[in-house]
Amino acid sequence: MPANLTYVWRPITGGRHAFPIDNTRLDTDEEATAYCGAATLAQNLHETTELAWIMEPTCMDCWQHLAAKLTDCGDISVRGLRGGAGSGTSDAAGLRDPLLE
Ligand SMILES: [Zn+2]
Which portions of the sequence form the region Disordered (predicted)? Predict the structure, then answer.
């Protein structure tokens, strides 16, 4: 059994950030804070578009935070995804968002 999802990726201005899953249960006018420290209104976690997903680059601070956490648990291998060229082409194929499926 896979572990319960503990985070969500959301494109907000400036990047596609990872937020603790609890942030999706905040009131819409409360502040959600990504793992890298980026903050946005919780309402923005629910108002994403496919275009935003395409336009925003993945936040590497959030990515590396999760990668370190997941590899510590031996949960998934992200070895091939770390230390990339930083070209912004890395995708989140291994970190799919259930709300968008
Ligand atoms: Zn971030």
Answer: 81-101
Q: 61 CA distance to ligand 1 centroid (A)? A: 5
Determine the distance separating the centroid of ligand 1 and the alpha carbon of 12, expressed in angstroms. 9
Say if residues 42 and 21 touch (Cβ distance below 8 Å): no
Token pair, residue 45, equals 């976690």
Q: Where are the alpha helices (DSSP H) in the chain?
A: 50-55, 60-73
Identify the bridge partners of residue 41 per DSSP, sorted by sequence position. 31
Tens of pLDDT along 19-46? 999 999 999 999 999 999 999 999 999 9
